[in-house]
Design a protein that fits this description.
Length: 399
Amino acid sequence: MWWLLRTMCFVHTIGNVFCFLEAKPKNPETDMNVSEIISHWGYEREEHEVLTKDGYLLLIFRIPRGRNERKESSNTTKPVVYLQHGFTVSADYWVLNPPSNCPAFLLADAGFDVWLGNSRGSNNGRKHVRLDPNSKEFWDFSFDEQIEYDIPATIDFILNKTRQTQLYYVGHSQGAYIAYGAFATNPQLAQKIKMNFALGPVVLTKYLRGVLRTVAYIDPKVIKTLFGEKDIFSRSNDNAILQFLCHREKIATACNNLLTVIFGYNPKNLNESRLDVYIGHIPAGTSIQSILHFSQGIRSGLFQKYDWGSESLNMQHYNQSTPPIYKIENMKVRTAIWSGGQDLLGDPIDTENLAAKTPNLVYHKKIPDYDHLGFILGKDVAIQVYKNVIEFINKDQSE
């Protein structure tokens, strides 16, 4: 069939209809999981399972050394770096580019012990000691549970495994949100963090822009009616369809531009030749309740716990009629922020307000042309972001 379509491409009158089906060469990582991708690029990897206090089992991945680093030469204590993903994605997206501009590999090659965490509900966080992932009860969580259970359990597991007392935290988007919440409410946990690196932080969302803002204006009952009360944005056949379309020469740019409508405009900084890899791993799923929590933050402009929808229900959960506020001023961990001028989710005004309220802010780099995905998938991310992160860690280690 494909030879017929290619033949038809030579016919001028109908060529415009079929030529767009010509595909680019498929990247091998498209259908790989995280461990397979790490091995594909020649790095050593480990896979572990973290048990949270409320019974969720989360996969986490480790890259213990750089690609060209000898095992026997890395017996000395190394800085531990923990990467936490954003909203509706998973640890997968830290390894979707080649090593030269891939966050996890850049940090490993810099001499660090790199760990990739996962939140409950992502493709790497769908197990529980007793709850069925197909049950409504499994999906009864918002950002609050990730703050209270996922982050502490993951950090404690990493420190126990590495026999260290502190680590460096790198959070992108919602990864920064749950860090601020966890470190503000859990002082013992905060003491285990040497430095908090917030990339495109989506913590305050009053001025969040783009199509995702529309979720704030949809009645929660409507969302539950349309999408149910369990998961959303999970991987499905839609990913395969998008891969098929977006990896075509004539459509790739359109797909790239569509991403910019959602996350911010900087299409030139995204590698179109790897769209099949990106779409194969993004999105990775979350709960409907998390979507509702996200929408509440946009409407209220506040960094607060999940609103159960009535004063009586809030009283049952919090012993007060409104959800408690996460107090940013209580987040005392040394923090560095990177923000993008074209970021629709981590809006510059919201990020400025976050920076102003962060009590131990030591650095804030504003990258005018960066969108939300640039901090993970940007062509120049090695120079714009991770060169600085590596310098901070190395300087901190030498002091």
